[in-house]
Amino acid sequence: MDRNVNKIMEDSDLEKNDVFIYSVISYDNGDLEAVPSGWLNENKTICYWPPKSSKNITTLIKNCAKPNEDWNSYSCSLIKQYGSYVDAKRKVAKLVDSCSSSSSQEFGKGHRRKKISSRVMSSENSELIYVSPIVETEETNSDASIMNISNLPVSFLTDNVDTNKKLDRLITTVDVLLKEVASLKVDIRENNKLIENFRNASTTEDHFCEVSEKCNLKFPIENLSEFNNMNKDLHENEDLKKEFSYKMKLLSGGKSDDFVRRMLDRCFSKEFATKLAWTSAKGNIPIGDSKIVIYLELICRKYNNPNYTTVMFKTCVSSWLRNASSRLKKNKTLNSVDQVFLDDI
What we know:
Blueprint: H1 5-10, H2 12-17, E1 22-27, E2 32-36, E3 46-49, H3 57-62, E4 72-82, H4 85-99, H5 154-202, H6 205-214, H7 224-236, H8 238-249, H9 256-267, H10 270-273, E5 276-277, E6 285-286, H11 291-303, H12 310-322, H13 324-344
Parallel strand pairs: 5-6
Antiparallel strand pairs: 1-2, 1-4, 3-4
């Protein structure tokens, strides 16, 4: 830093009382600026400027802050001195308007950090975006100047908007993925329960293989005769009851309603299910009080959910029975499509 800066710092208070507190100067590259007179050396040929890390440069100028040892120095020439910052800035504006024939010569509100061969952007608290002087060469312009943000290209100003939109889309995608992962974790837990049930049941598999030889347990039930026989056998045959419980247990896992629907699908054929109802309404076969349905409720409560109430069970079974015709129709449609496909082959 120039040796005269020490003297400037000592006489700073006197400078504030000077009638010419501010000076309009021109840097070597032709840029104009209004600065405190206390920022110039005795010969008015050097201007001291805050370092790049400084903030609120406008405040420093208006308060005629004392230059520090770490300030940068730049060559300049004095144009005129004024008693107020407003007058000095007005002079800069007039000079720019009178000598500039293109938009390349602009000025700011004191937000210029002079440093040779470097481009500097203002801090977040600054009002303007500015550039520092550029050393002239055959390939460069002689005037690098302060840019007011209102004159920046639209694409520059909207870059952040596009970035925010992309970020929002990314956040939305992440949220969807997290929900999918959570759903997948639930499915995995349910599958783990099914696997555990199979493992636990395998210890008694040999026993039920022997029981099966003595029992006549056939699924699915396809007519009223088979339905009545099954109810009778479950009431009288203890081995058949155990086998029935064992086979239904293998279907457990997941939500209770899903477990109940799997057991019903296993017990009754699609066509026979269309003739069933919880009660005998509309001439349907009532199953609400049958041994089969009573045992299904007990099995669900024992192997899946102890808190599964009779009302919940009845609601699930009734819903399954109401949709029996739709399931049958859908199944026939699928079979028809499969047959057409096989015929084409």
